[in-house]
């Protein structure tokens, strides 16, 4: 099943779990039983980062360093500045509701990096039924409703040339929620989408452009589309990391990439899984067009007591060892898996 998300709904971010083939949310959870299972999770290990903001100021991160995961080749899409946020009109909440923005400075601990009492500048926004008109394909119209709070900030450039940044979505265990609604020319609701995000992302950009992103972060999607008299529903839930002391991590330094940590997911079409990712040897990447593909390194995936290890080779293929069995994967098999959006 393929779900096409509306550009106005995602507000510039790419909500990744938009397509899913096979399975059912009511079935047994996925495991690593076969090479097909391993190839599915090979794609998702990078794709799960597509809904995660890195907190770095726009332009403050080298474009190459921002390509941590998601889309074709784990690297065709830059991380969004923050999930669900769009440039606001000069008039706050022009169609109703309230918006409060606070800016300031404070000391903050970056727990995932074991850094204490760092001076940061921050912006905090609290939205209460804050409604904006947004662009939709003519002759349709659309609105976007914001609820909840988020905060983002950064340390500025430190003496060693590095910069720490963070995003906190939600508060008091309540997610930051955006609701997109699209109407036809007769003002009938034809599409709705609710995105929620809750958690913390911390990042470190070094002077040479390397980017280290660590996330204890949950995000979700619920959508409904009316096709004639039929309504099609879809949902997706993603959780990254266990906490800030055990986050889901992606580190990109030039053409080298490292993933580690736990991610969990479930969609209306896929039962999902809980997967532990370990980079046993740094993954070497090669640029092909606008995408990056592995040409070296070892990546280990584990779920439900079963394991799969990819040993990538210079030709773009890999040796896959799954539960004691070994298979040879061609370049086309590896790239097709990474380009896929299986769930």
How would you describe this structure to a colleague?
With 343 residues, the chain is mainly beta. It has helices spanning 7-10, 35-47, 63-66, 331-339, and strands spanning 98-110, 115-134, 141-154, 163-169, 176-183, 189-205, 211-227, 230-240, 248-253, 256-267, 273-288, 291-303, 306-312, 318-322, 325-329. Strand 9 and strand 10 (256-267) form a beta hairpin. Helix 2 crosses helix 4. The longest helix has 13 residues, at 35-47. It is globular.
The strand count comes to 15
Sheet with the most strands? 15 strands, antiparallel
Number of domains: 1
Mean pLDDT: 82
Shape: globular
SSE sequence, one letter per element: HHHEEEEEEEEEEEEEEEH
Strand pairing plus helix content: what structural class? mainly beta
Total helix count? 4
Low-confidence stretches: 1-26, 59-72, 76-87
Distance between the termini: 9 Å
Computed CA radius of gyration, to the nearest angstrom: 20 Å
Question: How much of the sequence is in beta strands?
Answer: over 45%
Helix proportion range: under 10%
Keywords:
343 residues, mainly beta, 15-stranded antiparallel β-sheet, 4 helices, 15 strands, 9% helix, globular
Task: Give the topology, please.
Layout: H1 7-10, H2 35-47, H3 63-66, E1 98-110, E2 115-134, E3 141-154, E4 163-169, E5 176-183, E6 189-205, E7 211-227, E8 230-240, E9 248-253, E10 256-267, E11 273-288, E12 291-303, E13 306-312, E14 318-322, E15 325-329, H4 331-339
Antiparallel strand pairs: 1-2, 2-3, 3-4, 3-5, 4-6, 5-6, 6-7, 7-8, 7-9, 8-10, 9-10, 10-11, 11-12, 12-13, 13-14, 14-15
